[in-house]
From TrEMBL, chains A, B, C, D:
This is Chorismate synthase. SUPFAM superfamilies: Chorismate synthase, AroC. One of its GO terms (molecular function) is chorismate synthase activity. Keywords: Amino-acid biosynthesis, Aromatic amino acid biosynthesis, FAD, Flavoprotein, FMN, Lyase, NADP. Pfam families: Chorismate_synt. It comes from Nitrosopumilus zosterae. NADP(+) binds at residue 48.
């Protein structure tokens, strides 16, 4: 299977281009009998959509989801669920001068070579971050499935923008605060500073990156298939599909590699009759398999590649150096729009593994 | 497909257990007409094998590869290549008391639950690092294929052990120095300190983690399939199959998320008539597709979970806390044995993508 | 991957239901650079569409294809090609009384049990022959790809309706006659008798089955992958996805099993400098691999299950026997509408194998 | 995935060549907790093995199975089960003169072209019927799994050799008679005539084909995934992997296509409180899904291609016509050795679907 699909039992296929007619999702393998409404999906899409505030791109997309197959009288049928979003606010003219001048940090150059110039380059085409909306459509369903079938909750949030980090460690009580600000950082005070930094970067025609953390609770013990479908393998595969992601770590991650085994090992104990670990440096995954502790990931986003500053580049037609100034409407920082995307990909992956392991049945 | 296979066109299937009769590999999709000898595979296996020196486990395994299918008169035939290693030096008795006492940091507990106690727990069974030898058998072939067909070279090395890091940035001239010391660090002076630190940890009944860096050169522009088979997605999926890996980053990775777009963007220029970038913060991958620059990864290994110190844990039979002291022969640090494994998984993934993209043909 | 997708390198995903909003196709893996227009696809769809004449169902569907992704300025881009047909002429009320009375020969009963009554039963839902239009959308592209890239032509036709068979063996000169009559039988005289028989069956509230033959020429030697992706394996898998198909044979097929080896073996000879066989009892496939001779299949279609006669059945609600009279508009014989569907599935399978074998490259 | 593997949740990978060191099977996805012994597998292998009697090839292979992974203390562990058979009685010299003279009916010519002469041609190499022993190793386990988990039984038998057919329709009482004669035909009297015909063909340096019928009982309602993983699609895909198979039909099959709908439709009724059909023209499959009735298939085998008579052919070296006389030890009719192979592929496919549909759980 080429690259537009992900999953073994719960398979999401994404289609469409940034400036094409439509973007869409086919989700196959969702158990029959799950109650689902468009408005539940819309709610999650709205948290990702552009043009919400001053720190995101001013492209105005309603991003209205339409379910066109797989749901009958309010319930999933077991057939593939197809969802569409019609594109409306493309400004393709902004991209005409980019046809030859390679945008640094973007896929323009490798895509041109790979597809011998046949690719739809407008707005990044198939490589655009806009396509992550297709993951959110499927993810909203996967997230509900996990909640209904197993009580699993997955939440992610902005923990760092540029060099500004959250002061405290995340805890479950913070969940309700994540969407209380534009930055999706549960520490309101820190969020303010992050927002200011984004606006400064924007004013300077520059951009910022940051870090998203993801926490998934109530995962049953035993999800993940050794060796190559470990939870870490499949979660990282899903997360690295997001443009701009350049790093993924689980539990203590890179920090853990500086520790001794005696520090990093999570010791077992009994709590309320259940086997748990005292710490969670493993991020809830041992040997690639869930151990019942929360699954925790940290995800590094590079600063957005589209910046308003002039950059030196190459004109592929003349094969000479040239100066490029990217126009169009861009996010000075994509991180605040990423939590619904991360939640979606995490939910899709864990739901897939719950189906593989038999923890969720093919019909609810 | 469950978890024992990886790849789309070049598919590696791994089988066997740490203390079973055999471990082995079926590699399907390798083009017909590649000259390959057992000794080429053996050479790479020898760099991974245990018992080589004081800083690795004292389990003595010859790890002798035997090709039993798919090669005829010295050339690959296009049929699946099967390679076996017969286990010889298992000491399964060491694991009998572990049947009920959960080893912290290991897969024992989730594996027991997942397989309802039917799993072969001896030496970690299917979850053992020993299984990475099966990746090396396939990887040695993939690495040769890449070299012969496209001139691609992939090399990895130890860049950090615990808190000890290499002083300089890696450059291609260092490649010949990687295997000049036990630690597989191309800076000999630093390697010595790393080695000392490992021996101290060993003496304390403790363990250390570290970081492996991987560099792949001569990759043609255009490998990787949007969206979910991006090179980052598939490389990370492969790498996270290695037990102990808890983090993966490409190019500037986590560090890049603290930079501005104007710093992190790699500007294009022309060098010897070729389009290249002045820096390589992208790690050779843009939009999930290779851009012709070296592919660079950093991989975080946690400290080995098997330590000689007493640890508090839970006895799953009594469901009570218990004290555990792991016996057996273990690596105080697995990082020095990891470079051939990383090279193998990188080579397998890139060769798979070269086949998908048509850069390598099904018959040489 | 569940059941809505087929193919390894050229992957068709089918979605939608008979009486839902839309039916559609995502075709991934088609090489970039193929010129394609909606009208080329429409032409093939029109040959399948209902309501064309007195021997097919009177459901009137325009079956108008709309390409919504993957084609840019008249050429495929390498991205997934999505095509939609909006349903218009459903009469779902006809199916309300069928909710409980099981229609003999249809999927109603197993589907109900499988999906615990959540399935969309209207018009057969996901199981309807209507879904074969999604194969034709993808098939039209695959057929053009084969023609352009390799000169391969695939054609199928009606060779038998009920007990009425063609008098002569098919030969290539007959191709132009296939669509000269409603029955799609290249022997005009026989077609007339077939048509009469269908009309008699219709008048009696009954239905007829028949046989489609498929001939594919110009296939290069060497397509097909041993053992489980033999051409026969993958062609039959594709063809058996058509509702009503209950038998598939290649070359001399069932007849060949009554022959001696000395009769059935196709002897090699040289013709115009090319190695060919004197006969083609193998149907162009040896050891699962194309041998350069025309690929020939015969496909058995059962008589349509929807008949106007009263039938005794079971009411699943009362769990008692009941009398059923199926209303609605049905084909008295589906065979005449099947050739474009067979051509599509054959073209998709052979194009997939041409990509796997490297005979067609990922970019034209 | 290339062609050496089959299945989605229960995946069989076959490796080895006819005259190589070993042939083997990796079976992944078999639930943990199934009791299995080598002797159970051996029993089924023995029914397939060559050299059993005068009507089969005189190649003497012990075909001794050795389980080398995935079974621990008598039970499956959930890890891939690897089974090996070491080849012993190859006479590769017989094949040296065949290197250039193409054997009619065999894969020699397309294989040579496909692999550019790198393939192992000895004894048909990868294309040999010998490889079906790898399916039997996996099939023996699948068959036991079906029996233990769901009470499913699958049996096949010879119903026709050349033009000699069984007189009566098969019924379940005949099962115990299948292996009472060399031909595997439950009608002893007919078996005798079949045997005589095979011996006559052998004496004439000729060969015969025939038909195998397969009956699977106790299949639960609801197995099979629409559209492309219908039971018919996946069963035919599996069965057409057997060399010599050229036709597959379900239920009334080709015969049914001559009937009217009113004759061919299976009417529902209630029997012992269960919904059943009065006839079984559907072969137990409606809309690609099992309906609870026995699954019935008829499978056409061509006459064996290796015959002792002189045949005219082409010498690929001289590119001229040549006379070929195949030496070596061959089956005058492969049909009598096929029932265990058919049973295996049917069992593997149905077990795979039982896992997909959740009828069998990942841990018993």
């Amino acid at each position: 299977m080429p690259g537009s699909s992900i999953g073994q039992r719960l398979v999401l296929t994404s289609f469409g281009e940034s400036h094409g007619k439509v973007i869409g999702t086919v989700l196959e393998g969702c158990p029959a009998g799950l109650a689902i409404e468009e408005k539940e999906i819309q709610k999650m899409l709205d948290l990702r959509k552009p043009g919400q505030n001053v720190i995101s791109t001013q492209r105005k997309e309603g991003d209205v989801v339409e379910i066109v197959s797989g749901v009958f009288r309010g319930y999933t049928t077991g057939a593939p669920i197809t969802m569409l979003i019609w594109n409306s606010d493309q400004k393709s003219k902004d991209y005409e001068n980019l046809k030859t001048k390679l945008r640094p940090g973007h896929s323009d150059y490798p895509a041109m070579v790979k597809y011998n110039h046949y690719n739809d380059y407008r707005g990044g085409g198939r490589f655009s971050g806009r396509l992550t909306a297709t993951h959110v459509m499927g993810g909203a369903i996967a997230r509900k499935l996990l909640k209904v079938a197993l009580g699993i909750e997955t939440n992610s949030f902005t923990s760092q923008i540029g060099k500004i980090r959250m002061e405290k460690e995340f805890n479950e009580k913070m969940i309700s605060s994540i969407y209380k600000n534009d930055v999706r950082c549960p520490e309101n005070k820190t969020a303010k500073i992050m927002r200011d930094n984004i606006l400064i970067a924007k004013k300077n025609g520059d951009s910022l990156g940051g870090i998203i953390e993801s926490v998934t609770t109530n995962v049953p013990v035993g999800l993940g298939e050794p060796i190559f479908s470990s939870l870490e393998s499949d979660l990282s595969k899903a997360i690295f599909s997001i443009p701009s992601v350049k790093g993924v770590e689980f539990g203590s991650g890179f920090r853990g590699s500086e520790m001794h085994g005696s520090e990093n090992n999570d010791l077992y104990t009994i709590k309320k009759g259940k086997i748990v670990t005292k710490t969670n440096n493993s991020g809830g995954i041992l040997g690639g398999i869930s151990n019942g502790m929360p699954i925790t990931m940290r995800i590094a986003f590079k600063p957005a590649s589209s910046i308003a500053q002039k950059q030196s580049t190459v004109d592929i037609k003349t094969k000479k150096e040239a100066i490029l100034q990217v126009k169009g409407r861009h996010d000075p920082c994509v991180v605040p729009r990423a939590p619904p995307v991360v939640d979606s990909l995490v939910a899709l992956t864990i739901a897939d593994h719950a189906l593989i392991a038999g923890a969720i049945k093919p019909v609810l």
